[in-house]
């Protein structure tokens, strides 16, 4: 197995929304806000090379929306989804599977490209995977999440015939375990891997950044915040005991971290680049 971090650029979201009830005096030290109270966030994806599969986990925000849409989020940075895949030594044609943790626009937007008036899957040879219950949740969204589920990001995957549901089939024959959580949105999945005895979890929006490790630091975007807190606690306690590496999708600086139990609760133990935490190139 080989893991490659895939950077797709940065965007901005309101700091209050990202940190919920945590006072700005605290979170602003972690991720300083701009004049519009927006903080910068990464859209960090992951590429997993198995013996006969090349799996992309999430796809970033994409580039098919109009200037007005991107103006809300100040998309910036030099990295792009396709560029980062190529930098890692692969072609977009080699992607065999795209695992979508959930279908919010900053996770699925890059899954679909615009060609003229047509909306087509970005990866022609890939199967796209999501949970059936989450798919239904996304295509019939509640008013709170409606702005995060954009039909142009989602429906072309089904129309192309490339969409399959994780509930019915096995993505990787046991090499990737999926942790299902429901606090952020219905049936989000977190892929869990084992590399040479080291466990890694791609934390998606359960723990979007290193700053979100303390239990009360929960996003206002979560549909069930108390459930998020319980799910975080379960995952973090096991991560501390078993020294898991957590990969952060949205932290603007920190790719990954390990955690430990302290008198103040679970806190960051080591943090930095994924390869440095693994102590290798990320290949086994």
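Sequence proposed for the structure above (284 residues):
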């Amino acid at each position: 197995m080989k893991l490659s971090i895939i950077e797709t650029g940065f965007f901005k979201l309101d700091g209050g929304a990202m940190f919920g009830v945590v006072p700005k005096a605290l979170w602003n030290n972690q991720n300083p806000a701009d004049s519009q109270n927006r903080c910068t966030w990464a859209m960090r994806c992951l590429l997993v090379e198995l013996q006969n599969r090349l799996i992309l986990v999430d796809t970033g925000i994409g580039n098919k929306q109009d200037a007005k849409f991107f103006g809300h989020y100040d998309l910036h940075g030099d990295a792009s989804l396709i560029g980062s895949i190529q930098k890692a030594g692969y072609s977009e044609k080699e992607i065999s599977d795209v695992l979508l943790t959930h279908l919010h626009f900053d996770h699925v937007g890059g899954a679909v490209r615009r060609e003229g008036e047509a909306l087509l899957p970005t990866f022609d040879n890939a199967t796209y995977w999501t949970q059936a219950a989450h798919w239904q949740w996304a295509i019939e969204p509640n008013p709170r999440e409606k702005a995060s589920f954009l039909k142009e990001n989602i429906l072309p995957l089904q129309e192309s015939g490339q969409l399959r549901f994780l509930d019915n089939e096995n993505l990787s024959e046991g090499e990737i375990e999926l942790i299902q959580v429901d606090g952020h949105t219905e049936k989000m999945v977190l892929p869990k891997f084992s590399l040479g005895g080291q466990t890694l979890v791609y934390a998606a929006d359960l723990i979007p950044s290193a700053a979100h490790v303390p239990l009360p630091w929960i996003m206002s975007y979560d549909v069930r915040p108390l459930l998020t807190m319980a799910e975080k606690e379960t995952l973090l306690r096991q991560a501390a005991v078993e020294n898991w590496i957590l990969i952060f999708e949205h932290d603007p600086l920190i790719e990954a971290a390990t955690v430990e139990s302290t008198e103040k609760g679970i806190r960051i133990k080591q943090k930095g680049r994924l390869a440095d935490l693994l102590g290798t190139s990320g290949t086994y």
